[in-house]
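INFO batch 0412 | record 1 of 1 | parsing
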Amino acid sequence: MSDRGLLEKFATGLSFSQQRLKTQYKLIKYRRLAEIGEGLSLCARSECHADKPGLIKIGSNCEIFGSLQSVGNGTITIGNNTCIYERSIVGSVSSVSIGSYVIISNQVHIYDNNNHPTSRALRHQMCEDGFHTDAWRWTHAASSPIVIEDDVWIGENATILKGVTIGAGAIVGCNAVVTKDVPSNTIVAGNPARVVKVLLDE
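INFO prediction complete | emitting tokens
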């Protein structure tokens, strides 16, 4: 049975044993597409997509319950002891670097690209030409690397946009939209995210 067939078979109504089987299948897919360290923990909803194998690198003792998506030559690098929870997406066409001991909560979106061109005319042409053409790929949108340093905590439903560096020890509040660099040891919140508190070194 093809990979697509297996995914469709296990997509709905999974028993505990079926969930375990699906998780094992996801681990095989991760090993095929990514370089992974020891102790990687996945769930039935974990996803890994890459145009080319080897562009995603995951350290040891990580928990990835979300989705990692590498398009074109986009790289995703994750340190040790980092967790990315359910329905979160890390998408790269350039470079996303995530440090060690990082907590990424549920439904966080981290994209190093705009997904689509900002030009109205180009988007009009995309829709006219059809919804599954090459023009829809992230490789045609503006992109810039994202760096998330060690010990960062990103709250639920936050969005991290292209070109941003989040300094070590920072906290990103729930629903925040991060458009600019975040200093180390600060809490940011809001849309666009702003520093609301400076954390003392502990």
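INFO post-check: The helical segments are 3-9, 16-33, 120-129.
INFO record closed
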